[in-house]
Amino acid sequence: MAEVKLAVLGGGGAGKSGKGRAAAKLPLALGGAAERRRRGRLVPALTAAFASPAALTVRFLTRRFIGEYASNAECIYTKHLCLDGRQIHLEIYDPCSQRGKLSLTDELHWADGFIIVYDISDRASFAFAKALLYRIRESHLGACKKMVESAVFLVGNKQDLCHMREVGWDEGQKLAMDNKCQFCELSAAEHYQEVVAMFMKVLRNVTSSFKVKEKRRPSGSKSMAKLINNMFGKRRKSV
Ligand SMILES: Nc1nc2c(ncn2[C@@H]2O[C@H](COP(=O)(O)OP(=O)(O)OP(=O)(O)O)[C@@H](O)[C@H]2O)c(=O)[nH]1
């Protein structure tokens, strides 16, 4: 079984996870890190309680959108899926909030692929995405884990808010081209199929890069799983 690790990064509120800032308003049973740790999985009841838009990770994992998903903690979600007949054990790293955090040292060592999210109605989030892409590209030159450029996906989220658009489609496209990564605009709130297609595309690119690596080197050189446990010490959730 192939193991794929994706990090979903972006400015606060870009719509990475579906974890809104209304956490404080949520009933304790529906949110809170301790409760989520105890349950060990996303809480389906949340979807019934909140009919507002949710974001990429939760949308992909649950098929539903959850507008305000309470969490104050970073975590790694896990999911098993079948891609082109191949079993994949997927881990998705979801930081609590990316605000101001650009170092990415741990993430660059851990992740096989990145999804960088910005909000098309928020220029500041686009600037942050740009800085993240720069950081990732820079790491290709350093000692961090090498990754294929196609394993980075730039996503302009909240396309349903195009009447409030601050970032043009062409700007996103250009930024992606400059950084040799893939690009799409979508709405986590309204475009479930597009969200899935985007994740699948990243997964395909990552797994095909694995195949190339497998051909190039003997087995036994790949085990970052223990390292990530030591570095992050995060909870793992099955969905
Ligand atoms: N209209 C619209 N709102 C969205 C969409 N995706 C997310 N939102 C809303 O945007 C807000 C922020 O979404 P989150 O998923 O919490 O954003 P985040 O990037 O995880 O934010 P942090 O947890 O602060 O890092 C929430 O109120 C979501 O309901 C979308 O596609 N369209």
Automatic annotation (TrEMBL):
Query: How would you classify this enzyme at the top EC level?
Result: hydrolase
Report the superkingdom from the record. Eukaryota
Q: Which SUPFAM superfamilies does the entry link to?
A: P-loop containing nucleoside triphosphate hydrolases
Task: Output the InterPro entries linked to this UniProt entry.
Answer: P-loop_NTPase, Ras-related_GTPase, Small_GTPase
Gene3D superfamilies associated with the record: P-loop containing nucleotide triphosphate hydrolases
The EC designation for this entry is 3.6.5.2
Point out the signal peptide segment.
none
Reactions accelerated catalytically: GTP + H2O = GDP + phosphate + H(+)
Regarding protein family, the annotation reads: Belongs to the small GTPase superfamily. Ras family.
Q: Which PANTHER family match?
A: RAS-LIKE FAMILY MEMBER 11 (PTHR45704)
Question: What's this protein's name?
Answer: small monomeric GTPase
Organism annotation? Apteryx owenii
**What taxonomic lineage is listed for the species of origin?**
Eukaryota, Metazoa, Chordata, Craniata, Vertebrata
